[in-house]
């Protein structure tokens, strides 16, 4: 629905009233910005663009503005945020709204004005007469969180829109790094577009440019632990400390990743496939895809020793046993420089 409305806006097909509601801010903000961009010239904005907060301003003031003619332009756009009277919630009672006046305006809007009501609420009160009237007369868009499949399709659409391409593995990795937040995804795509130009966006580009979450950085750290690469492990660890990540938090995520690898290894040994493991552990399939080769190459006893060591380390950190950074360094030294037979505890 949003794509259809965006296309109409770019074709200069406007509705006199728009109602945008929901908790996906990116979709709401993009639609609002597109309405402003397409409906009025930049030099006219000072005279023909008005923005109100209905928690501070009565609706009749907004409607008076809607009914005035555009100044040196073909049309004017009026944005009104927080129409809480469309929900079942109670407002802050700072202002009283003449809702009858709004009902009348909805029935007979001014053709030269575009009124945009922005309701950043998960749902509206469908029982209210005013809500029903708006849904009938206005272009109404509900901005709700997209499914994983819809988000990935959205990524493909954004890339296609600028005439570029992206590999399926790159889409998977981008989603893994950033998650379902459309605003963050949009920002990362802008960066990728600037870097790649007309070249295809691949996994290497994602790894190079997209900011990784704490969990992803620690996944890389655990990978280096498995490879017994002490220098690279300490480099990632000290980098996390510079980002003000707490050692106990780093420890918790490492422990989670190691347990995850043990679970993957156990299920692989039982003959389960990628999709089955993803369903059983309730994690993203791409994460399982990355984990399987690592889990296969890691000795089961070593994983169990590491899990026990990390549990003991967690207890010591929480009881103030010693310097947390030094204890983490000792963990790395223990598992990266000693033979498995030497690791009997801490």
TrEMBL record:
Transmembrane among keywords: no
Keyword terms, alphabetized: DNA replication, DNA-directed DNA polymerase, Nucleotidyltransferase, Transferase
Enzyme Commission no: 2.7.7.7
Enzyme class, first EC level, given as a word: transferase
Catalytic activities: DNA(n) + a 2'-deoxyribonucleoside 5'-triphosphate = DNA(n+1) + diphosphate
InterPro entries linked to this entry: DNA_pol3_clamp-load_cplx_C, DNA_pol3_delta-like_C, DNA_pol3_delta_N, DNA_polIII_delta, P-loop_NTPase
NCBIfam families attached to this UniProt entry: holA
Protein name, per record: DNA polymerase III subunit delta
Provenance organism: Pallidibacillus pasinlerensis
Upper taxonomic lineage: Bacteria, Bacillati, Bacillota, Bacilli, Bacillales
Gene name of the record: holA
């Amino acid at each position: 629905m949003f794509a259809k409305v965006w296309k109409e806006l770019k074709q200069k097909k406007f509705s006199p009233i728009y109602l945008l509601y929901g908790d996906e801010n990116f979709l709401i903000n993009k639609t609002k910005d597109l309405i402003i961009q397409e409906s009025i010239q930049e030099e006219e904005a000072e005279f023909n663009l008005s923005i109100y907060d209905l928690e501070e301003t009565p609706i009749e003031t907004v409607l008076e503005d809607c009914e005035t003619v555009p100044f040196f332009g073909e049309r004017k756009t009026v944005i009104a945020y927080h129409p809480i009277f469309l929900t079942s919630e109670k407002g802050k009672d700072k202002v009283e709204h003449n809702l009858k006046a709004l009902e009348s305006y909805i029935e007979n809007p001014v053709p030269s004005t575009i009124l945009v009501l922005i309701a950043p609420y998960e749902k509206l009160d469908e029982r209210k007469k005013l809500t029903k009237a708006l849904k009938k007369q206005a272009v109404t868009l509900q901005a709700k969180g997209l499914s994983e499949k819809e988000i990935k399709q959205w990524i493909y659409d954004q890339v296609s829109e600028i005439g570029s391409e992206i590999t399926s593995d790159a889409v998977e990795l981008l989603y893994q790094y950033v998650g379902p937040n459309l605003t963050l995804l949009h920002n990362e795509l802008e960066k990728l577009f600037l870097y790649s130009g007309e070249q295809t966006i691949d996994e290497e580009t994602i790894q190079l440019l997209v900011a990784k979450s704490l969990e992803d950085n620690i996944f890389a750290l655990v990978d280096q632990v498995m490879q017994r690469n002490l220098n690279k492990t300490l480099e990632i660890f000290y980098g996390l400390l510079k980002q003000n990540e707490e050692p106990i938090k780093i420890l918790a995520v490492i422990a989670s990743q190691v347990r995850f690898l043990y679970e993957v290894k156990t299920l692989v040994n039982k003959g389960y496939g990628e999709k089955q493991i993803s369903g059983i552990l309730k994690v993203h399939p791409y994460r399982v895809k990355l984990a399987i080769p690592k889990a296969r190459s890691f000795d089961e006893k070593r994983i169990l020793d590491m899990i026990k060591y990390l549990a003991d380390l967690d207890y010591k950190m929480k009881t103030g046993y010693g310097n947390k950074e030094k204890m983490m360094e000792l963990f790395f030294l223990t598992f990266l420089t000693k033979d498995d037979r030497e690791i009997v505890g801490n």
